[in-house]
Write a structure and sequence with these properties.
single chain; alpha+beta; 6-stranded mixed β-sheet; 4-stranded mixed β-sheet; globular; binds beta-D-galactopyranose
Length: 419
């Protein structure tokens, strides 16, 4: 509940009162505005769970959920940019670990470091060093990871023998399974929602790993592999073949509607990050009973990292409340509440695996030994300008299906933004 001017709500603790004084919110509304793009089934539920944990500790704070719909932040990022540039930041916002924050709002001097929160919460002993490195620059930490999503995941509706987990190990196996399903009368066995194009960028990054391996993929961002390599064309050719099996309305629907085609039984497979698992479970689908999840074809033993984090903008209107939010995001209770619904695995290493479904338990196990690859589509591999250029190119590719033209345009983008 919000509180009136000059008042604090009944039940306010001394600590809350001091926090409110420090942030100057005692004279206005005692709010916490959280900005994200989590509006779909699963992701919205995960966020709501974290809000509950926050409310348990700070009952008098009114949480304002400022989520903007559109997968991968396809609409939210522009809204956030307008607000940040206009000096009207939310109290905290969802942002991918790495370049998406560091080369934008950190560089523009619009963020406060969270280094002192990180240290006082002791996150060095509970959040892996590699994740800390991704959210750091200079000697500071800029955001706290809440999860790790797997971008290279294939979701299969159960009951379709032609497209079962043992028929999808390689991209060739997968295509031949889709062929059988189509021959059996299913028009669009592979569900795709490509509104915003980022979903096709995910197909590209997964297929590059399948074609060239994790080292080749990682080398594309440190200069040890070339975007002119034939592996890029191989990856594009596999997307082109996949397009023979997808729903024709894919440019008009998003990832969650594509996932819905599996529950409606009009498709049997979809390649999407494990937020799709959150969608399925939010729609009462039982993991490993109604559906299952495996690494996307050809990418076993690798993990395409998509890591959601929250940071602290300069001049956050409710700064003290925002600091407490960041603490909840990094806490065991927050991550234990959030991740099972969100579909991700926790960023912290001490959240018990036993609270997760069987697919997440497998992913937690696989994560420990997998070769980690940062996602282009979800902000960690490369600067935003490169990612959005790749998205546009993939939008062209699904229309024209011109492998040579897209391969050469991708190499040009790499020359422009990765050197
Ligand atoms: C990603 C984000 C995920 C999920 C997905 C679909 O960018 O990291 O948490 O929300 O978009 O919206």
């Amino acid at each position: 509940m919000g509180v009136g001017a000059g008042a604090l709500a009944l039940g306010t603790t001394f600590a809350e009162f001091m926090a409110a004084c420090a942030s100057g919110t005692t004279g206005g509304k005692n709010q916490l505005e959280i900005f994200s793009w989590w509006t779909a089934g699963g992701e919205a539920d995960g966020l709501a769970e974290m809000f509950k944990i926050y409310k348990q500790q700070y009952a008098s704070v009114e949480i304002v959920n400022a989520a903007v719909a559109g997968g991968a932040g396809s609409n939210a990022k522009a809204v956030l940019a307008t607000r940040m540039q206009g000096g009207k930041p939310p109290d905290s916002f969802q942002v991918h670990a790495g370049q998406e924050l560091i080369s934008t709002w950190v560089k523009a001097d619009k963020m406060e470091p969270i280094t002192s929160i990180w240290n006082s919460e002791g996150w060095d002993s509970t959040i892996p060093k590699d994740l800390k490195t991704i959210v750091s620059s200079g000697s500071d930490v800029w955001s706290v990871p809440v999860n790790i999503h797997r971008g290279n995941a294939l979701w299969l509706a159960s009951g379709a023998d032609s497209v079962a987990p043992n028929t999808v190990d390689t991209l060739d196996d997968f295509l031949s399974s889709l062929g059988k399903a189509k021959a059996g009368g299913m028009k669009a066995p592979l569900a795709l929602g490509s509104k915003g194009n980022w979903q096709v960028t995910m197909l590209l990054e997964n297929n590059i790993v399948a074609a060239g391996g994790a080292d080749f993929y990682r080398g594309l961002f440190n200069g040890s592999s070339s975007w002119n390599d034939n592996n890029i064309k191989v990856a594009l050719n596999y997307i082109k073949s996949m397009l023979n099996y997808v729903n024709s309305d894919h440019p008009t629907i998003d990832w969650d509607q594509a996932a819905g085609r599996l529950t409606a039984k009009s498709s049997v497979a979809t390649i999407m990050g494990d937020w799709a698992k959150g969608y399925f479970t939010a729609n009462n689908q039982k993991p490993d009973t109604d559906f299952t999840g495996v690494p996307s074809p050809g990418t076993a033993k690798t993990y395409m990292i998509v890591c959601d984090t929250f940071g602290l903008p300069k001049n956050a209107p409710d700064r003290a409340n925002a600091i407490n939010w960041i603490k909840v995001c990094g806490s065991e209770a927050g991550q234990a509440a959030f991740n099972p619904k969100k579909g991700s695995i926790p960023a912290r290493t001490d959240v018990p695996a036993s609270i997760f479904d069987s697919i997440a338990q497998r992913f937690i196990g696989e994560f420990k030994t997998a070769a980690l690859t940062p996602s282009i589509a979800h902000g960690s591999a490369a600067p935003e300008a490169f990612a959005s250029g790749v998205n546009d190119e993939m939008g062209q590719f699904v229309q024209k299906k011109d492998v040579n033209a897209s391969a050469s345009n991708l190499a040009k983008l790499a020359d422009q933004f990765l050197k």
